[in-house]
Amino acid sequence: MSHNVAIFWDVENVKPSSSANLFIQGLWDYAEGLGRVVSAYAYADWGMLGYKQLGPSLASLHFNMIHVPFRGRRRDKNSADMHLTNDCLDLLRFQGHIDIFLLLTGDSDFRPLVMNLKKAGKITHIVCDIKNASNDLLRLADNFTDYRDIFPSEEEDEDTIEESAGKRTIITAYSNEYWFERLAETASILRKEKKATDPGNVKISMKKLNQGFDEKPLGYKRWGDFIASASRAGYVNMEYDGKQSAIIPGMQFSQEKGSLQIALKALVETLTEMDERASQPEFHRYALVSSKLKDKGINTKTLGFSQFKKFILSAEARGLVETQVEKLASFVKRL
């Protein structure tokens, strides 16, 4: 059955720093991969130079461009939120044939909206900036992805993908122990940041750090079963403080010795070497960085990344690097 898709884009919240027009085309392709796009809205102060240039591309795709003016140097956030929420609920009420709502935002204020969409039996997809998106919002969505992953890539896509109800799941043959290691790493990162490590928050954070991860292809029907197996294998432990459970790294986990940690460390070292003659970090093309990592024996495909781009985005989610897209060329620099 073909799905009908509606797009709602809070431009201020999800704002590509470069090649925005290329992002718009990538967004449209992503939405068409979910079904037939029947309605699209974008919210911004269209009088501002940075957004005004998006107008022709959005108009060519028949976006409804809703004007949300800035007041002084700040946007009227409440006005933008209300416009988007009201327009979305109007479609929910009067256009019942729309069954997929694609929201471009990471703002936790949209949790009530997503809950209403779910109560009505609608599928919700969120495109966001993974680095600052609300875990509470993403936990409610049926699927989410980082906006950087939507840019068209100059690399050939070699993913093996299983499509089900509009959800893209990357299938890899990587061992369960590898993913137990990623679970422990996620708990370790959250603890260092003094954030909650309850099972729900760890699940969303792990998916943010490892886009495409799903425990079900690994043979686990429930998230709790996956955690229990990781605990039995010694990668994590469970603690209970009388209010909620917490996941903590176990004896089998080493922040420095894991296969992915070694590759990430090699990436930062390689970028540092490439910046040897520069006074500050510079952007380098993916292809060149990939070639140098291969010379060091780092094969990102053996780590579960079918594209080098996905490995770089994983490093960016961990706060190690920054990416930039110009036309179809992708660049990365160390932080």
Tell me which CATH architecture of the largest domain applies here: 3-Layer(aba) Sandwich
- SS-based structural class? alpha/beta
CATH class assignment of the largest domain: Alpha Beta
N-to-C SSE string, H for helix and E for strand: EHEHHEEEHEHEHEEEHHHEEHEHHEE
The end-to-end span amounts to: 45 Å
Question: What is the CATH H-level superfamily of the largest domain?
Answer: 5'-nuclease
| Count of structural domains | 3
Strand order of the largest sheet: 3-2-1-6-7-8
CATH topology of the largest domain: Rossmann fold
Q: Tell me the major beta sheet.
A: 6 strands, parallel
User: Using DSSP, what is the number of strands?
Assistant: 15
* Residue fraction in strands: 15-25%
Work out the helicity level.
Answer: 25-40%
What is the number of helices? Answer: 12
- Write down the Rg: 21 Å
Can you give a write-up of this model?
The chain is an alpha/beta fold. The chain has three domains: 4-152, 5'-nuclease (Rossmann fold, 3-Layer(aba) Sandwich), CATH 3.40.50.1010; 170-249, Nucleotidyltransferase, domain 5 (2-Layer Sandwich), CATH 3.30.420; 259-334, Orthogonal Bundle (Arc Repressor Mutant, subunit A), CATH 1.10.10. It is 39% helix and 21% strand. The protein is built from twelve helices and 15 strands. It has helices at 20-34, 49-52, 55-60, 77-94, 111-119, 135-140, 176-192, 199-209, 223-232, 259-274, 286-295, 308-317; strands at 4-10, 36-44, 64-67, 70-71, 74-75, 100-104, 123-128, 143-146, 161-164, 167-170, 236-240, 245-249, 284-285, 321-326, 329-334. The strands form five sheets. A six-stranded parallel beta sheet has the order 3-2-1-6-7-8. Strand 4 and strand 5 form a beta hairpin. Helix 7 packs across helix 9 (223-232).
